[in-house]
Amino acid sequence: MEGKGRKGKEEHVSVSFARSGGPGGQNVNKVNTKVDMRFNVKNATWLSERIRDKIMLMEKNRINKDGELVISSTKTRTQQGNIEDALAKLQAIIDAAAYVPPPPTEEQKKKIEKLAAKSEQKRLQSKKALSQKKAFRRSKDGGMQMTGLDSTNL
Q1: Neighbours of 5 (CB within 10 A)
Q2: What is the pLDDT of residues 65-79, one digit of tens each?
Q3: DSSP letter string over 49-60?
Q4: What are phi and psi of 77, to 5 degrees?
Q5: What sign for the dihedral angle of Cα 134, 136, 141, 142?
Q6: Distance between CA atoms of 36 and 83, rounded to whole angstroms?
Q7: In the chain, at which residue ranges do the beta strands (DSSP E only) sit?
């Protein structure tokens, strides 16, 4: 049921059409409006290596064994509308992969350090409490209460 393939604006994007489900009445049974867009991530040399690797990682379930990212669109009732929608999805994926969070400000760094110090202090306090509890158990009767024997019965 796949329609004819055509190359998109970019050399690494190929588009094919198929019959789409959803709204459209009888038109749905006659016109190939579903768009399957394939973007070859491995051959997209115009993207940096970091961005390509991130796309491969983020979209690993949508990438086939040939290294092609498969994007489908059935949003509109026209081929052109679905092509635009698929291109927008591809652009969103590339933008998400290219995003680099800004470095933390001095205020954020101080807050992170403060939280780390607080959690370390809490961890040490709980270790100390557990140690004291065990020391108290050891000092009491030398473990005689466990066997049911009393030092007076010996």
Answers
A1: 11
A2: 888 889 988 888 888
A3: HHHHHHHHHHTG
A4: -95, 5
A5: positive
A6: 9
A7: 2-7, 13-18, 34-40, 68-73
Residue type, 109: K
Query: Residue 119: its pLDDT value, please?
Result: 96
Q: pLDDT per residue over 97-108, tens digit each? A: 998 888 889 999
Backbone angles phi, psi at 114, to 5 degrees: -65, -45
Distance of CA 19 to the CA centre of its chain: 31
pLDDT at 142: 55
Hey, CA dihedral for 116, 118, 123, 128, is it positive or negative?
positive
- Tokens 């949003």 belong to 75
Tally: H helices and E strands in the chain: 4, 4
Could you tell me the pTM of the whole model? 0.60
The answer to whether 70 and 63 are in contact (CB under 8 A) is yes
Which residue, chain included where needed, has tokens 């066997």? 147
125-148: average pLDDT: 79
Q: Which two tokens stand for residue 97?
A: 């992969």
Tell me what pLDDT residue 148 has: 54
